[in-house]
Amino acid sequence: MDKNQQLIDKRAASKLGGGADRIERQHEKGKLTARERILLLMDEGSFQEIGMFVEHQSTAFGLDKNKFPGDGVVTGYGTIHGRPIYVFSQDFTVLGGSLSKTHADKICRVMDLAMKNGAPLIGLNDSGGARIQEGVVSLAGYADIFYRNTKASGVIPQLSVVMGPCAGGAVYSPALTDFIFMVEDTSYMFVTGPNVVKTVTHEEVSSEDLGGAKTHAEKSGVNHFTAANDVEVIKQVRDILTYMPQNSQELAPNPSQFEFSEAKNSAIKSILPDNSNLPYDMVKVLDAIIDDNSFREVHADFAKNIVVGFARLEGKTVGVIANQPSVMAGVLDIDASRKGARFVRFCDAFNIPLMVLEDVPGFLPGTEQEWNGIITHGAKLLYAFSEATVPRITVITRKAYGGAFDVMNSKSIGADFNFAWPTAEIAVMGAKGAAEIIFKREIKSSDDPAAKWTEKETEYAAEFANPYRAAERGIVDEVILPEETRSKLILAFKMLENKSESQPKRKHGNIPM
């Protein structure tokens, strides 16, 4: 046989994966194949495969007669928007995408290359789990991957795209990465499946309800981004990468063009209601500040009382953390604290400045919150802001009460600038509660306690429910008009571009877990 033709034939066989029938079944489920996904993800013509002819070396349980070139995972490198990216894509048509030691070695190879070359790593997960026939060897393969995920954390961006099953030990690799994307109806993640759950706890639950995209987006917070199908999720990945640097030593790319509708500067003045106890949508405030159509929300369906995501100011990426008064009055609870803390730490790891929009009445009270560790979880957000060395600016739009004021990037925990709108209320607590404590005896001894309480509440509000006491003490740098917010932020972030801040010498801190 002609040797060149032999190579061509071998390439064709490898590209068929588990064969035409299995590819057809993959398509019938509404799923793309491993190679189709990569070709859609990468810039056209840029993907270069590594390890196309690799095969497993196992012989137990008939595996020696069941070999496929590539061993169920496609690995390699290419570019997205012209920037180098490393990728692996599990092939469900080959032995259910199950992970063998060889399969794991291929993934580890591109992980090592990504680290050496300072480029993001994207994993497209579609696997039935460890290859049972290999026993503990396949489990060791998972551990090799987990170890590298941990070493790469904070060094290069790691994105996990779950596009099929991801169960058992397999879930811990995505969990160790920065962001998880899931596809509705075709992807799921869980440590133990519905059958095991039924056996152990006698609960009847479907795969979708136990670990589907919606479940992890709304209930657990495991899933950061959800898409309707494979094509849409890959578009999301390509888009979100434009907000990230290649590695921890670089800055996010700046688009050469951006747009800002000046009409938004006028609209921002009318967003807050006159009554400070009425809700409003903080995303509308955000939209009136940032470049047009630049906000990319993260964790949109989880802990909606806080909003996090990427945005741009004059083309430059910023990380946004904002209380959401339209949901639970914007209080901080366990889930909101976890959500905010993880996002703050990602931004700090990858040199993305932090922009905080604050309207927080405090932490959520109640036995459920206390018994489930609001103290520890709230401290995560406090810790994340306190250790962050990137430029950090807070804008207080309305309420900034109690310990939550401190936690939401106050100057006392290292914020570079704190601005406040004239509507800001910066105090230990709301006027009603404060009046009840401070003037308790006076109210009780009054002929009309209710009227006296109202009088003292008004007195306290006039004295403290404003930004000027804080401004007098330098706790707030400047009180600004709402329509000045964008320009003030742009100038402040420009001034902070060369910020340099070192941490105390240590191995690492011990973040509250």
Supply the key terms:
single chain; 513 residues; alpha/beta; 2-enoyl-CoA Hydratase, Chain A, domain 1; 3 domains; 8-stranded mixed beta sheet; 7-stranded mixed beta sheet; 21 helices; 17 strands; 39% helix; elongated
Structure, explained:
Helices cover about 40% and strands about 15% of the residues. The mean pLDDT is about 90. The chain is built from 21 helices and 17 strands. The protein folds into three domains: about 5-245, 2-enoyl-CoA Hydratase, Chain A, domain 1, CATH 3.90.226; about 265-430 and about 465-495, 2-enoyl-CoA Hydratase, Chain A, domain 1 (Alpha-Beta Complex), CATH 3.90.226; about 430-465, no CATH class. The protein is α/β, with parallel strands linked by helices and about 525 residues long. The chain is elongated. Strands 10, 11, 12, 13, 14, 15, 16 and 17 form an eight-stranded mixed beta sheet that branches. Strands 1-2-3-4-5-7-9 form a seven-stranded mixed beta sheet, with helices on both faces. The longest helix is centred in the first third of the chain and has 17 residues, at about 100-115.
How would the global form be characterised?
Answer: elongated
Name the helicity range: 25-40%
- What is the top-level CATH class of the largest domain? Alpha Beta
Question: In CATH terms, what is the fold-level topology of the largest domain?
Answer: 2-enoyl-CoA Hydratase, Chain A, domain 1
Q: What is the alpha-carbon Rg in Å?
A: 26 Å
- Quick one: biggest sheet? 8 strands, mixed
Amount of beta strand: 15-25%
Assembly state of the chains shown: single chain
Under CATH, the homologous superfamily of the largest domain reads 2-enoyl-CoA Hydratase, Chain A, domain 1
Structural classification:
alpha/beta
Low-confidence stretches: none
- Total separate domains: 3
**Terminus-to-terminus distance:** 62 Å
